[in-house]
Amino acid sequence: MITSEVLEHIQDDVSAIAELTRVLTPGGTLAVTVPSWFPEKINWSLSDEYHAPKAVGGHVRIYSATELKAKLRSAGLTVTGSHHAHALHSPYWWLKCAVGPRNDTHRAVVAYRRFLEWDIVRGPRSTRVAERVLSPVLGKSLVVYATKPANAGFRAVDARAGSVQGAAA
User: Fold this and answer.
1) Which residues pair with 78 in a beta bridge?
2) Fewest beta carbons within 10 Å, which of 17, 48, 103, 140?
3) What CA–CA distance (Å, rounded) separates 95 from 101?
4) Distance CA 96, CA 104 (A)
């Protein structure tokens, strides 16, 4: 499996997806994680600095699930599933964008970061339930899974016959 978490930072994302597809083993799975459209749109509304190319976030685009899936399909992949995650992280970034993305010492930012750290370490049932309920709408991350067709670019050498077989032969 290959995972990618950088597409929102890359100007030429189509070429990046093509390269990820090229190096993915036939039959292999690609998991792409990008910021979710709705929470990210709020970040962009709260802070111009957040989405400047060299800034803290440095995100040059916001993906909708439809757009990302279409780009993966255009690269020859089969989308097999998707989900949203990290709902409790969205308010943290909204706070950071509201007070300035580089302001890590603001009381509200510090308090919420401590809450997230506590949640990650302790994993209480109450926040796991909240995460499951809220993630479809507030999830900071969109995760899309796609596979490369098993016969895509497959080259097998038949040791008995000494010939090359497959789609790329």
Assistant:
1) 147
2) 48
3) 8
4) 7
Q: Which domains does the chain have, with CATH numbers?
A: 2-155 (3.40.50)
Give the span between the Cα atoms of 127 and 122, in whole angstroms: 10
Residues 6+ apart with CB under 8 A from 96: 47, 50, 56, 103, 104, 109
Written as tens digits, the pLDDT of the chain (169 aa) is: 776 678 888 889 999 999 999 999 999 999 999 999 999 999 989 998 887 766 655 678 889 999 999 999 999 999 999 999 999 999 999 999 999 998 999 999 999 999 999 999 999 999 999 999 999 999 999 999 999 999 865 444 433 444 333 433 3
Sign of CA dihedral 14, 16, 20, 23: positive
Q: Is 72 exposed, middle or buried (0-12, 13-18, 19+ CB in 10 A)?
A: buried
Question: Do residues 59 and 51 lie in contact, with contact meaning Cβ atoms separated by under 8 Å?
Answer: yes
3-class DSSP assignment, residue 50? helix
